[in-house]
Design goal:
Oligomer: single chain
Distance between the termini: 57 Å
Order of helices and strands: HHHHHHEHEHEHHEEHEEHEEE
Largest sheet: 7 strands, mixed
Bound molecules: S-adenosylmethionine
Radius of gyration: 21 Å
CATH topology of the largest domain: Rossmann fold
Number of strands: 10
């Protein structure tokens, strides 16, 4: 490396309490990409600084250089997970992008739930489920059509890379503001009132959903295929080649007649899919 590039690498890119250089940013971005497939453009440097400054303070470190050294070493593996959690976006809502749940209810579930009553197997997947609002919205949609669904072979797999969000999801208690998008009738029937207008998911919802830690860019242990996959507002943080690979992997795990729901700003680039509604995809050549 020449003197000019060393100077370039050592330039502080965000002013503040802790020195934070180009080199630190690039190293953090490379780790995030390697661990989770997340692409971090340099325009996010201020965000990285503000989210990780808290970690530096908590650990009593003096610079991002020290932090990078820590998270690069084997002893820093736990902190590396904290870094990943601090840098991922977990924003979610009940019934976010409601047209997907309307589509699921009207076009996909009636046939599947009929088959479940005749001993069929129904599998739905919320990939990148964050704090649980998405899989629980799927569960409420299932219960709205089939109140006794938990007695049949109907399962919603909910996965995320971040164990902290999964802990919150398993707890399943949401504030009054968080539950406001849930139709009142569904909330009354399937959730349990808690202090201050909060609601906790009831037993029937819990029985339908299984939470598991899973890194989407790693190996997937699931063997069976899914009737619907929700992967919304997750791949948007991946670079294009990683997104493209993801679509192909979802294709391989979708039942004929299955549906893939993606986020409002995401587009499926895999030729094996065709559009089946707004940000809704079906296997090309599959039945409608
Ligand atoms: C913005 S939230 C989306 C939540 C929900 N799907 C929705 O649309 O409301 C993105 C979630 O993706 C998870 N995530 C990011 N990278 C991941 C990866 N490589 N594997 C699995 N989950 C990942 C994050 O931890 C976060 O909980």
């Amino acid at each position: 490396m020449g003197i000019a590039s060393v100077r370039e690498g050592e330039r502080s890119i965000v002013g503040g309490e802790f020195p934070f250089t180009d080199r630190d940013f690039k190293q953090i971005a490379a780790m995030l990409y390697a661990d989770a497939g997340l692409a971090l453009p340099e325009s996010k440097a201020t965000l990285v600084y503000s989210r990780l400054a808290k970690r530096l303070r908590a650990l009593g470190l003096e610079s991002f250089r020290q932090y990078c050294t820590l998270v690069s070493e084997a002893e820093g593996a736990g902190e590396r997970r904290n870094m990943l959690a601090a840098l991922t976006t977990n924003v979610t809502r009940f019934f976010r992008e409601p047209h997907h749940f309307e589509h699921l209810k009207a076009e996909v579930l009636p046939r599947l739930l009929q088959s479940a009553r005749r001993s069929g197997r129904v599998r739905l997947w919320s990939a990148g489920c964050s704090t649980g609002q998405e899989p629980y919205s799927i569960a409420l949609t299932v219960l709205s059509l089939m109140p006794d669904a938990a007695e049949f072979d109907v399962k919603i797999l909910a996965t995320d890379i971040d164990p902290n969000v999964l802990t919150a999801a398993r707890r399943g208690t949401y504030s009054q503001t968080e539950v406001s998008p849930i139709p009142a009738e569904l909330a009354r029937r399937w959730m349990i009132p808690r202090e201050g207008g909060a609601l906790e998911v009831g037993e029937a919802m819990r029985e339908l959903v299984a939470f598991r830690e899973l890194n989407l860019i790693g190996a997937w242990p699931m063997k069976g295929r899914f009737d619907a996959i929700f992967c919304r507002n997750v791949v948007i943080y991946f670079d294009e080649p990683t997104q493209h690979r993801m679509w192909g992997r979802f294709r391989g795990l979708l039942q004929p007649g299955g549906r893939l729901y993606v986020g409002h700003s995401e587009r499926v680039t895999d030729d094996g899919f065709r559009t089946a509604g707004l940000t809704t995809y079906a296997l090309a050549g599959g039945r409608a």
